[in-house]
Protein 1
Amino acid sequence: MKPTIPFRFLMIIMSCAFGLGLGSCVKERPSVPKDLAQEALIPLPQSVHATGVSFAIDKDTKITYQQPDLAIFATDLSEYLGKSTGFKFSTKEANSPTVNTIHFALVDSIAQAEGYVLNITPEAITLIAKDHAGIFYGMQTLHQLLPAQFEAGLMTKDTVYVASGRILDFPSYSYRGAMLDVVRHFFTVEDVKRYIDLLASYKINKLHLHLSDDQGWRIEIKSWPKLTEHGGSTEVGGGVGGFYTQEDYKNIVAYAQKHFITIVPEIDMPGHTNAALSSYPELNCDGKAPKLYTGTRVGFSTLCTEKEITYTFIDDVVREILAMTPGPYFHIGGDESHATPLDKYIPFINRVQAIVKKYDKKVIGWDEIAHADLDSTVVVQFWAQEENAVRGIKKGAKVLMSPAKRAYLDMKYDSLTKTGLTWAAYIEVDQGYTWSLEEYAEGVHQEDIIGVEAPLWSETVSTIDEVEFLAFPRLMGIAEIGWTAAAKRSWDHYKLRLAKHQVRLDAKKVHYYKSPKVPWNN
Ligand code: TNX
């Protein structure tokens, strides 16, 4: 039986009165929100000033933009608002906002890249930024100020109100990333796009794809076709694996670009290379190809660092991938090369760095690469050993923060979590949030750090639902750590905002973990 409205109302009152569940008394978002400071925004903006009234979006609201290259944002917003209201919002170029408009403009007065100012008055909403990314991020904030039904495109057929005030916002760090291991288990182009949609809405701007490992090779290389034909044919547990054709990869890159996300491709070497070694015997020092591997051990494989063919191979792979990669980075892996002696590892990493630089790209590598020669263009991705991060800094490199104990999304939440690993820690939602980049490791200071990245390794993860379960809500906390100044963040405030996001996560059909640490509304 479908409960009638009065019955549902009574139930809510009763569950409040009898204290059934912590969150059950939390008030619904008022239909005419007036206090901008009470809105649950994630990541929290750098500054919010409320003015106590609201802007009404109705059938006469117009969307304008100050120059032609902003037309796309106006069209996107018109479609987004149109889906849920049924109204047709006109869009046109205009110098300044008039009454009942939402207006976009680029200005020189905003200093920070990706920053924006969202000014909401009863007359107009103006979104100004220094660059397109800033307009995009202001738009993500605006989405979070609208009712959650909009996330699902559900009809409201009504005037919609946005609380008035001024949000001045910019990221603390320029690198706010997530990593997906598409090797241990393969994820389709559609899966990756779904992940991109979710990342972008929390202002994450990098997606690092771990494209090769012992268990598979996931990116088509035309000059070495067996890498995917043979090396892409399996995954952990013996499934059929899979790979991205070059067209698939370009498709992912283009989709990411539209969402202001830079793809960072990784080819892990000299270790984590069994799939490549199995595809081409000449890459092995003994000239013999090992069998494909579907287990989860690490550290047993290595490219033959003394053979010239190895460097021809790497040059071909790097060249083909970079020809399709507009972003500035190439990730060379470099982790857990236990089968490569250090005196061979160092010259190997040095040569590989030179190959990447030849194609005018910046090198990123896991923290072990700090043993090699580095310069100020190199980024050391700190995951395990603080002394490697410090070693890298002393050589002039920058650091990307991914401490496994806090930022690894493949770690279980607690002992009851079904998927995931435990080698670094259990990471409950509060554990994943209550740390800061600049205070995590001694000798790693704010000026050394380019940002944060949350890796999700997929040994135990084989569906996008499982990816979402491990990533959400922890990734929202990581997004805030990268965006919002540490001094402005607090778990007590964050957990309330997170609870209010439950309706949005539900609307987006995200398979998130209902952590007992969060006072969810239902
Ligand atoms: C360590 S983190 C690895 C990966 C595993 C991961 C599992 C890193 C650079 N290497 O090969 O998948 O642990 O959590």
Note: The domain at 7-169 is CATH 3.30.379.10 (Chitobiase; domain 2).
Protein 2
Amino acid sequence: MLRDRRIVFGVTGGIAAYKAADVVSKLRQAGALVDVILTDHAAEFVRPLTFAALSHRPVYQNLWETTGEAAARHIELAEAAEALVVAPATADTLARLAQGRADDMLGAVALATTAPLLLVPAMEHHMYEHPATQANLRVLVERGAVVVPPEVGQLASGIVGIGRFPETATILAHLRALLGRGGDLAGRRVVVTAGGTQEPIDPVRYIGNRSSGRMGYALAEEARDRGADVLLITGAVGAPPPAGLCVETARTALELRDAVRAAIVGANVLVMAAAVADYRAERPADRKIKKGSAAENADGSLTLRLVRTPDILAETAALPGTERLVRVGFAAETTDVAANAAAKLGGKQLDLIVANDVSKPGSGFGTTTNEVTIFHADGRVEPLALLPKAEVARAVWDRVVSLLAARGSAQADGDA
Ligand code: CTP
């Protein structure tokens, strides 16, 4: 989605300017066409040549340089830009942008472009928290800018506080979301669940499963990049959730059920990629179960009584106000994949079920790829090749987009 996209990338004069080099490099590797503009102060920290070498394009700095090339190009850059990124954005730059100053190349392009603005503030924490900086950020956000919040951590001064330049992946996630605003899921509210649940046995032990959450994360990211308003509800997942979307956590099946029920009110799509425990301990101990304690049987064994958890996805079919919700389930199977998936599709009244044989190499838990078959409510069955999870996600959303369009026209017919 970044391939051939025109990004104007402003780098301003803070120590994090060196980290901007990595962002530019990753953008170019993803196929974006990145035109870098340095402020004079940024060039004190990192030389223009660094950015020219990484972007494979000329770098702009002095609007008034004698050849007139930069002055001539600022309007062209402003018009070609699909997004203007300012990273790092110093306190001074935020003030200048808020005021609409145009006495340097970056300010002139920022005024002349209609492209959305992505700001990545990074500075000393008092400067960031100062009411003047916060007021400038508010003005810019009111005008439509998106701000990637700085992280809390060790700052260049050695002090720990807010103001750190975020990870490259976080900035790219926000940029993808910004570029995807007009995508085929724009205006849609989608809920994606990911990861496994953990059902407590006692305060230190639980019953879990091998879900890594990767498939759910890939689905949430793809929806975000196609313009959806995404709520990702994660169970137990090792990796941090993707940036640029709303995240809630739900540890147990019962917590997940509450979170899903609340989230689907007014939503267009529910994708249940979470691996929900089918059983939970009926009575989790409130203290750690000790060997030799009264909890043990006489022969030293331990009996845990497990009870069924509710089928969250199946229950949503009967909830009022969700008649038009597109509902997608996942089925991880080890035997009779087709028969089991078809039974779940019907039993849970789904629009789609994405089934995979988790015993196959490269498919299922903990892998970065998946080989799935998509079963449709109308009886169509589509086996897909072994694909990276991001591409499986793309295929799933392609089908959901068609279902949403069909549902929209069915509604229009009904209204007519
Ligand atoms: N699911 C759910 N609530 C449950 C169990 C599963 O919402 N208590 C959802 C899963 O998120 C998935 C789909 O239902 O989208 C199928 O899950 P799966 O575990 O494969 O099916 P089950 O119905 O639990 O059947 P079984 O475990 O017996 O195969």
Note: The chain has two domains: 6-179, 185-410.
Protein 3
Amino acid sequence: MIKISPSVLTADFLALDADIKKLESAGVDMLHLDVMDGVFVPNLSFGNPIIKSIKAHTKLPLDVHLMIDRPHRYIDEFAKYADYLSFHYEAGSDNAATLKRIRELGVKSAIVIKPCTGAEKIFDLLPLCDMVLVMSVEPGFGGQKFMPQALGKLSALKEECNRRGLDILLEVDGGINAETAPLAVEAGANVLVAGNYIFSAEDMAARVKEIKSI
Ligand code: DX5
Ligand code: ZN
């Protein structure tokens, strides 16, 4: 079963409560929250106070994607409200220690790779992950075009998980729409992040159903 994790990055934050209710009734599986620090990525978004407020307004699991430098500094803070907590392989932490710490705090652990990072770089970390996130755009902005090189990485990760007997969620993030979602699923993704495609729609529920039916 494919899970949908809408990214609220391009949402209207003052209308978010109503939009979350619509997404809940449309049957989304989690909410994807993009945290950007203006250092690891050339953009700023929001931090834990906003995530805390969102948590109080929904029962949906929160899928928090940290695009921040040296993320180990903030793991304990974000673990208070996150259900899935992901950080970048490239961001300059002891990645194994950070993944272990996330699990210790009772949160599902995930590592993210940018388009320039090969899948094999994280093979040895897979036993510490509940989910892996493959970026299909350069992190930092919503509304970009899907990069097809993500597909080969998803297949390689799926194969490696099978080889190791690991049951890990494979998430893909960036440029997901009705054309790219089937490609990602075919390559092995089972969690699809979609920002613009859902939030730019007149009928968000229809878009969710469209992607869910893949
Ligand atoms: C980009 C973010 C994504 C983004 C996806 O850095 O990680 O989650 O919001 O947005 P779309 O689906 O519009 O590419
Ligand atoms: Zn994201």
Note: Residues 149-164 form the longest helix (16 residues).
Protein 4
Amino acid sequence: MCGIVGYIGGKRAVDFLLDGLTKLEYRGYDSAGVAVNCGDNIFIEKSVGRLDSLKEKLKNRLPAGTVGIGHTRWATHGRPSDLNAHPHTDCHGNFVVVHNGIIENFMPLKEELIARGHKFISETDTEVVAHLLEEVYTGDFVSAVREVLNKIEGSYSLVFMSKMHPDVLLCAKQENPLVVGLGKGENFIASDIPAIISYTRDTFILNDGEIAIVKKDSVQVINRQGGLVDKKIFHVSWNAEAAEKGGYEHFMLKEINEQPKAVRDTMSKRIAKDGASIILDELNWDKNFLDGINKIYIVACGTAYHAGLVGKFYIEKLVRKLVEVDLASEYRYRDPIVDDKTLVIVISQSGETSDTLAALKESKRLGAKTLAITNVVGSSIAREAENVIHTWAGPEIAVASTKAYTTQLILMFMLALYMAQTAETISGDELKRLINLLKKIPAQISETLSDVEPIKTFARQYGFNEDVFYIGRSLDYCVALEGALKLKEISYIHAEAYASGELKHGTLALIVEGVPVIALATQKSVYDKTLSNIKEVKARDAIVIGIAAAGDTELEKYLDHVIFVPETDELLIPLLTVVPLQLLAYYAAITRGCDVDKPRNLAKSVTVE
Ligand code: M6R
């Protein structure tokens, strides 16, 4: 997704702009550009493609100015090209703008501006903002920006620079993240914290409707009416290294290996010292509150949706309440049956996914109680929800979500236990037993991670197949969905997951000699049925790789390859079985020479519909 950076201070702005944009590369982009105020003119350079192309164009001609803005674009209006790349300017190059989001009414605005003589050079929605600024400007930059914001509709984070006002950068936020980093004699602007953490840890996180007036030595935040907003400094506690690869070849592999620590962090301070109850300080729900809830929706996208499917099992099993899991992009348009007795849980790693945010807003409008599970403090979803529980997974940079998924599962499990203990639907002994098993999960993930060689071998053997099938029943099916998504998105192999019982209703027709099938068989309650399904595909000469719990002696009788994960309760085993599937996807992508951390056509954070 698009990235924004801005600098105002005493140093050469372009150095920060290029470094900041590099730190935001993980968000995905197709072109990039910078603009630097050089006094009598504004220097602009843009390039389609990776940042390296832009750096190449800037070689030996880096502008000396100390005020500038930069952008990485992920095309929405208009194809990726030099002309469509940001920054954009008005007719005379007096105003320069970078923008994340979508200006929904740009078409009528553009037609009016053209009719009044403005010349457009790009196909973007963003360019209208610069031309509007040119039209309304009468000498007061801040007033002009406020007037422009009143004319545009949609979602945005915007940064404005003007030739006539070289001592200030202005920025505005609406439904797209924006932070201001506070330095000494210099200040920074970015759409995401990793761009600025090597420069400062003190930030202002802008809220919707706020405008920041950023100068070298001061930052003032006002609302759309012009009133001063009293902002609290948010001190970023991440360590700069946490956003680096830490010795691994790819962020994805680093993040897969970070899972033991990530899930430990998620649990930390949330289990009572005596191991007999769950503490979720973020929620002060009581039995009355939960008795008043008659339906629960879990709403999310992609991997977070898959975590929601597992969450449904947890809540239904432990709390005995009906749970529906919805894709956010479907839920928001299908007139869901929601009222004040409904609890809507949204799950989002980034906390910025546009569909999930819209679903959350719609749920609130319909009167539901809302809870967000997210990894990003201060994200739009975290701020919008009534209650928030953070996964504390640390920054996830690779587009493919791994540690976010396992920490979401941990939190869904802890939430279900918390609800069960509060609603009194679980006995004290059972609660203790499950908490005890939960505490073993970090070490068991480490154990699973240590047995990587057979997975590398499978990946090398089957990495060039064009189709792979994943099968399983119950929670194994939920994990199969996640395994197939991982393989698709980073190795570009066509992968599908099926509930094993569905095979004979159609899919079995695709199972022929040599087709790889990954079969999960860990759910004791449906084990025999799963085994029959595995025999069905094996009888058609598929190459079947089994995933089973340690102690399973049955599966090996039928299959040549079985990957074992440590034994635990069948509710918790998805936290272990997903690990070999993540690794299989990773090594298959490596075998095929794919760009693992930045798969084609995908972005880390999907902030447009
Ligand atoms: O940030 P979110 O959790 O809301 O993102 C949701 C999906 O876009 C995300 O999980 C996506 O499916 C990942 N690329 C999967 O690896």
Note: The CA atoms of residues 178 and 206 lie 6 Å apart.
